[in-house]
Write a structure and sequence with these properties.
three-stranded parallel beta sheet; globular; mainly alpha; about 5% strand
């Protein structure tokens, strides 16, 4: 049971007890790879995805409608299939071994998330809608 890991990468995997959202952002900002499992709403996206990307981590996540429409697998994000969860370890291991590719994808994700999915960009969109509606 638990999160035990029998791998050559044990010294690279850090498992923490439950922390607050603010602490989570600090911890994930230190990560080269952020492994994300989306909550069960599959049309939108969790802010964790964008926070991880804006912190410069390679985000490896299961997809959602929003993510599939806005992020490209292998270009600015990496997807895994929940129906084939046993392959997630292989995906993570691949990017641990291919650091230049991981860094390239992480940087592209950081740029895209910072531009399109930051709280500031969301607020600008809301203000634009309000302006269009004459509010």
């Amino acid at each position: 049971g638990g999160w035990g890991c029998d791998s050559d990468y044990n010294n690279m995997v850090h498992i923490h007890n439950r922390v607050s959202s603010a602490e989570c952002n600090i911890l994930t900002a230190q990560a080269k790879i952020a492994l994300n499992f989306m909550p069960w709403y599959k049309d939108g996206a969790s802010e964790r995805v964008f926070n991880n990307m804006m912190a410069g981590s390679l985000c490896i996540t299961d997809p959602s409608g929003y993510l599939l429409n806005n992020y490209i697998d292998g270009k600015d994000i990496v997807y895994f299939d929940l129906n084939n969860i046993s392959k997630v370890g292989e995906v993570v291991e691949y990017y641990l071994e291919h650091t230049e590719e991981a860094e390239r994808i992480a940087e592209a994700g950081k740029i895209k998330a910072s531009t399109n999915d930051s709280w500031l960009s969301r607020m600008q969109t809301v203000l634009q809608y309000m302006d269009e509606d004459g509010v």
